[in-house]
Structure of MIB E3 ubiquitin protein ligase 2:
Amino acid sequence: MDSECYASMQVGMRVVRGADWKWGNQDNGEGNVGTVVEIGRQGSPTTPDRTVVVQWDQGTRTNYRTGFQGAYDLLLYDNAQIGVRHPNIICDCCKKHGLRGMRWKCRVCFDYDLCTQCYMNNKHDLAHSFERYETAHSRPVTVSARHNLPRITLRGIFQGAKVLRGPDWEWGNQDGGEGKPGRVIDIRGWDVETGRSVASVTWADGTTNVYRVGHKGKVDLKCVVEAPGGFYYKDHLPRLGKPAELQRKASAESPPFQHGDKVKCLLAMDILREMQEGHGGWNPKMAEHNTFWVGDMVRVIEDLETVKRLQAGHGEWTDDMALALGHIGKVMKVFGDGDLRVSIVGGQSWTFNPACLMAYHLEADANLNATESAKEPKSGLLSRPGGAGAAAAAGPRGHRPAG
């Protein structure tokens, strides 16, 4: 199977019932969400080609049509769980970098994008039509304006839900024993690998761990009391199994930028200043044409209020960063959106808007040798999920009891 053409058919995706649904309340009612846990294949007596098996949050597990006999039982609600990411796109509402899951681009406003959560929560002008990008390589699909369209409440394993151990549970008696309930504290991604794919759960005995809800196609939990998880416009979600049209590998009209490409701004300063409104803001140092690369030495500007303002949407600001103002550091990583991971001499690493930095020449300070041994962090944007359930590369799991 061509993994590109069938990008919308992977285990771990979160789905809801679709237009051809005829299976009663197997999903516990419209709006309830499930996880794709198996992809059909030719020759299978139980899960034939163009079908998938879905594990519903409420516990039912069965297969559904995704093109079989021309029918589509399911809609794709979220694909962040399989690692779909738009690395150079920022949600213009919540300001999250590297937008995860489907991308929604306004067809009226210049360079305005929303993540699925903001789009479904009625952010931006409801009279504007949008384009939906299923993946970073998909051609856009135009959808109508949201004004006056019906919205459905999403329900299942979300913050506040009451849960029990589920079908893929392999964590012993971490939950206090079979039948003991827990409460979902939040839904999060697993490091930078997948998004909205694990749940942090606090059990009756007070312990908290992280469990899979889509990560690698596994579901560790079963919902016994559902919680609302937002909304969705049924008419705007793609049918699961309909191949996403891919952009041509090379386009003479608009070749895409790749990570590491060198670029040059050809705009006049006054035009660039105007275009920066609502997209990170303007700083006079942008006119100095500084370009930074991994290994460059930089100095953080000292103006506290300017740095706070410039950090919005660019790694954000925390009060601990004040210690870095005016100090020298080394560029450890250049992110796809141009932000920089900088290791401060004698301190820790931070993600900075490049407008917050000035070039610094190594020979000016012999003490900078201390940065040569600085290690690049595993993730420049996200910290590892907390709780005792955070394991290493094997993926999220609870703390396995001794013995």
Summary: The mean pLDDT is 81. The first helix runs from residue 116 to 120. The helical segments are 116-120, 269-275, 304-311.
